[in-house]
Design brief:
Structural class: mainly alpha
Number of strands: 0
Low-confidence stretches: none
Strand content: under 5%
Distance between the termini: 30 Å
Oligomer: single chain
Radius of gyration: 18 Å
Helix content: 40-55%
Length: 97
Amino acid sequence: MQRLIIERGALRLPDDFAVEAGDKPILRGSWLAGHPARRAEAGWNEETYRRVLAAYYGNIAMIDHALGEVFEVMDTRGLWDRTLVVFSSDHGDYAGQ
């Protein structure tokens, strides 16, 4: 398995990371996403959020890698053309957006 190393501070935050959610209803319910003041109150500075995002992205990469292994075995065994794959997930954490 390939390891992805991100240098400290190199992970780019979302473009709208510092923008308040305002009247965006999808974000009003999320305690940290879209609320820079709340993140500051909780002690979540940009470096903290970069670490959280790196872990989140790492989790996604791990799932992607594991699914790739499953799909490769399915292909090798001739099961790919007669298999329906359904992948479901929740909304995630908005990644600070």
